[in-house]
Design a protein that fits this description.
12 strands, six-stranded mixed beta sheet, about 575 residues, alpha/beta, Rossmann fold, four-stranded antiparallel beta sheet, single chain, ABC transporter transmembrane region fold, 2 domains
Length: about 575
């Protein structure tokens, strides 16, 4: 309940709606509780004394009261829905903003499929419970207490039946809630699993088709779906059994009231109208006990969703600005690694980088080679502080990157990541993404430097061509060139190309390198490449092996001094055959 109470704090801006809804529900409850007593008056006074005026007047009053109750109920529903929907919108917005603020390390731990579930299904569960709490959870206790009081006022003797039936019904409800709550938690967990499988399958549909694994994915989805279905059926069966059981108690109570009431009527100590009124109050009391029980079960079910939402909201970015972080930063581009050691899980795993030390002067192109898993991408991710080092330090212009405001630092670093990500929108918007205020001329200049201008102008609408989801209507090489243009348009002091030309042909890659040499004059470039031909003219080449720098120097120096580099060179260019590491 603590998580739900905490999320309820999001209702604070809508406190007027939260107050008005229960007040209007109170109006409906009061009107509903008056109806049995008015029915009693019609039967005992109007019909019993053959007074049609009483029947007509009381009947008209019942209609008027019913209309007031409808107004109260509808008004409560309107304000409850407004408050719940506003809460849901703010929760989704808060979650999305929190996710945007998280570091790479946080996102490594929080799976994409789970984040989507928390932003959608979990938020829906919480907002639905809030709506129900403002309606049913307000109405239930009020009607329960009110009907018990009115039943006692109607007949203190018959009210003793409530002392017998009430605990029996309450005990049955508690038993059902205890059994159903953990079952609902499992349903939610299985639903998360189903959403994850569905998200993975849809996102990787092209891989599924390429490897002819449709049947496997159908089986995987079917197995998860079957587990969810079976658990949902078990919950439904429990509730299906519980419903008739509770109604049995209610009907037995009605029979007992009619039997005992009939005896009292025969004795002349009770009237028929009072029996009808009491039966109504008894039914209301027992029915509302059931509603409150079911509502508490829904609250328990939503608790799991609230905890998952709170987990994201409580997450603190692993990379944070220091209180005195430098925000006015315009570096020349001198990057230094000083005895840097880094791993992704603190002390819990082996270091990805070990005691890495090197210097990149302004205007230099530093190439990074190494086998898969040697730490190439991890190294360049430390420069813009996507992660923080565990030991040592990384400096830009002799300033520790941890002393620089993250936004100020990253505005001066252009990055084309290993995985090319494009957004729905136009080609122009995607290139401008890193610098929204860039002019059309700057967009075109960046595209030309990335060797993307020619194929862009060949698209149906040129730079205004709308890309499909993740740029699906472009080839891998085209997407990479747009990503490079996006990095170049920021006019960074430091440029990082993380294997960002792997899908580009050799001729185009040479043209990109020539353009970069002109554009990045007096700027520092880090280039991770699989093709050694990409790095032959680099000012400095770092050869990584098992997280450490195995060799450092120019192409000629490394050919003479580094067996690892010479082996890579011979495997790709030594026999005149181009290959990949």
């Amino acid at each position: 309940m603590s998580s739900i109470r905490r999320l309820a704090g999001f209702l604070r801006p809508y406190w007027k709606w939260v107050i008005i809804a229960p007040l209007l529900m109170l109006v409906e409850v009061m009107m509903d509780l008056m109806q049995p007593r008015l029915l009693e008056r019609i039967v005992d006074v109007g019909i019993g004394q053959l007074d049609m005026n009483v029947v007509v007047q009381t009947g008209a009053l019942m209609v008027g009261i019913a209309l007031l109750g409808v107004i109260g109920g509808v008004g409560c529903s309107v304000f409850a829905v407004k408050a719940a929907q506003a809460l849901g919108a703010d929760l989704r917005s808060g979650l999305f903003r929190k996710v945007q603020s998280l570091s790479f390390g946080n996102l490594d731990k929080l799976e994409t499929g789970q984040l989507i579930t928390r932003l959608t299904n979990d938020v829906t569960q919480v907002q639905e419970v809030v709506r129900m709490m403002l309606q049913i959870l307000v109405r239930g206790p009020l009607m329960l207490i009110g009907s018990i009081v009115m039943a006692y006022l109607t007949s203190p003797k018959l009210a003793l039946l409530l002392l017998l039936l009430g605990p029996l019904v309450a005990g049955l409800i508690i038993l059902i809630v205890k059994r159903a709550t953990p079952m609902y938690v499992k349903v939610q967990a299985y639903l998360d699993g189903l959403n994850t499988v569905m998200q993975e399958s849809l996102a990787g549909m092209r891989v599924v088709k390429a490897f002819v694994r449709s049947d496997h994915e159908k089986d995987r989805f079917g197995a998860t779906n079957d587990v969810l279905t079976d658990q949902s059926i078990r919950v439904a069966q429990l509730l299906a059994i519980a419903g008739p059981g509770i109604m049995l108690f209610i009907n037995l109570g009605v029979v007992a009231v009619l039997w005992a009431g009939g005896i009292l009527v025969n004795r002349g100590t009770m009237r028929v109208g009072e029996i009808l009124a009491f039966v109504n109050y008894l039914s209301i009391a027992l029915r509302e006990m059931v509603m409150v029980g079911m509502m508490l079960m829904q609250v328990s079910r939503a608790q799991a969703s609230a905890e998952r939402i709170a987990e994201v909201l409580d997450s603190e970015p692993e990379v944070q600005n220091r209180p005195d972080a430098i925000d006015g930063f315009a570096p020349q581009g001198r990057v230094v690694f000083e005895h840097v050691t880094f791993n992704y899980d603190g002390e819990e795993s082996e270091p990805v980088l070990r005691d890495v030390t090197f210097v990149a002067e302004p205007g230099q192109t530093v190439a990074i080679l190494g086998t898969t898993g040697s730490g190439k991408s991890s190294l360049v991710h430390l420069i813009p502080r996507f992660y923080d080092v565990n030991e040592g330090r990384v400096t830009v212009d002799d300033v520790d990157v941890r002393d620089i405001d993250k936004m100020a630092l990253r505005r001066n670093i252009g990055v084309a990541l290993q995985e090319t990500v494009l957004f729905s929108g136009t080609v122009r918007d995607n290139i401008r993404y890193g610098r929204p205020g860039a002019t059309d001329e700057e967009v075109i200049a960046a595209a030309k430097a990335a060797q993307a201008h020619d194929f862009i102008t060949g698209l149906p609408d040129g730079y205004d061509t709308v890309l499909g989801q993740r740029g699906v209507n472009l080839s891998g090489g085209q997407k990479q060139r747009i990503a490079i243009a996006r990095a170049l348009i920021t006019q960074p002091a430091v440029l990082i190309l993380d294997d960002s030309t792997s899908a580009v042909d050799v001729e185009t890659e040479v043209k990109i390198q020539e353009a970069l040499e002109r554009l990045m004059d007096n700027r520092t470039s880090f280039v991770i490449a699989q093709r050694i031909s990409t790095v032959l003219n680099a000012d400095k080449i770092l050869v990584l092996d098992e997280g450490g720098i195995a060799a450092e120097g120019t192409h000629r120096e490394l050919l003479a001094s580094s067996p690892i580099y010479r082996e890579i060179y011979d495997s790709q260019l030594g026999n005149g055959v181009m290959a990949y590491v």
